[in-house]
Amino acid sequence: MKLYHTQIAPNARRARIFIAEKGLLENLELITVKLGDGEHKSADFLAKNPYATVPVLELDDGSFITESHSISRYFESLSSGIKLFGETAKEQATIDMWQRRAELGVLFSTGQYFHHATQGIGDDRYRNNEWGLHQQSQLLLHLAIMEKQLQHNPFLAGEIYSIADITLLCSLDFALHLNLLTLNDYPKLSRWHQEVSQRPSSAA
Amino acid sequence: MKLYHTQIAPNARRARIFIAEKGLLENLELITVKLGDGEHKSADFLAKNPYATVPVLELDDGSFITESHSISRYFESLSSGIKLFGETAKEQATIDMWQRRAELGVLFSTGQYFHHATQGIGDDRYRNNEWGLHQQSQLLLHLAIMEKQLQHNPFLAGEIYSIADITLLCSLDFALHLNLLTLNDYPKLSRWHQEVSQRPSSAA
């Protein structure tokens, strides 16, 4: 299998961490897509993913799975070992909910700020500066909800480390990289961030 | 169990159709949330869902699952019968990918148009008219990808009806309701739309 990715893109990192947690990252050929050179918009890459995004997983039968979440779902079903999407019906639904809250809230706000209020990846896509700046305020609302959840739970979706933590870690590190926040104002998020950052998979 | 919903909201409809496909809709108490009266922003509702959205599932133990997708995941794990999220690793990943493409593409574009370029649900949330109007053009890009996918597949994620079809159906009906498009320009989507609309669950 091949994983088309870039080292810094938060969505690619989500997939790498998930696969590393499953112990399968060494089985993959990693191929870097040069976003700065517009390689993701080439005809060759669009044939792999019409949405022009990374990551993309190429299976051995030549088919493609796009979307970090869907690629993670593939490895969850493929492998035995710990279940990062949960086991029981309630656990699976709760993890899915917090994964979505981290992704549609924290990662989305940060990504929209990056693409609309900064130079982004320097491409020619539509920019709406006011929209991008508005996402800064939205990010803070989402973080307040995460902080509250982590008051009574060691991990984002409850007692166990899950894909929700992977999404929040990559989202938060992206926001920190953009200087959109400091964790000083969030003691619970700060404690959680330190802990999950120490897992070996975080370096993936 | 209780499902807090509104009849017209596309995300609530996604959950109802999914539960109807599982044959479990009669087991639920349906409770209407009056969005027009701001009931979703009341302290009582925010205690159920800090994101102030429908649907919300209340489990018999008093806990809450929000997000149409997460609620569907709960019923997928809970019930036997056909798997609307797929069976094999590849099938599950492919369905997840097309579900996300329908949701993050078609439903997101339409929802953003609704909330930013129209009066939406008449609340006081931030509006960015230019952003809303831009989503019309984005919607057409996403529909072109769906049309191409349906050229060679009976259903959105391939050979079997899945949660991806439920998401696309609710997204498309929402866009049609807003007069954002006509299906005349999309023969494959039109064929698919007729077929999935005829399933009894579509009336849920």
How is this structure best described in words?
Chains A, B: It comes from Lentisphaera araneosa HTCC2155. Chains A, B: This is Glutathione S-transferase-like protein. Chains A, B: Keywords: Transferase. Chains A, B: GO terms for molecular function: transferase activity. Chains A, B: InterPro entries: Glutathione-S-Trfase_C-like (IPR010987), Glutathione-S-Trfase_C_sf (IPR036282), Glutathione_S-Trfase (IPR040079), Glutathione_S-Trfase_N (IPR004045), GST_C (IPR004046), Gtt2-like_N (IPR034345), Thioredoxin-like_sf (IPR036249). Two copies of one chain form a homodimer. The first copy, chain A, is α+β, with helices and mostly antiparallel strands and 204 residues long. The first copy, chain A, has two domains: 77 residues, Glutaredoxin (3-Layer(aba) Sandwich), CATH 3.40.30.10; 115 residues, Glutathione S-transferase Yfyf (Class Pi), Chain A, domain 2. Chain A is built from seven helices and four strands; from the N terminus they run βαβαββααααα. Chain A has a four-stranded mixed sheet with strand order 2-1-3-4, covered by helices on one side. In chain A, a hairpin with a 5-residue loop joins strand 3 and strand 4. In chain A, helix 4 runs parallel beside helix 6. Chain A starts with a strand and ends in a 7-residue tail after the last helix. The model of chain A has no long low-confidence stretch (mean pLDDT 96).
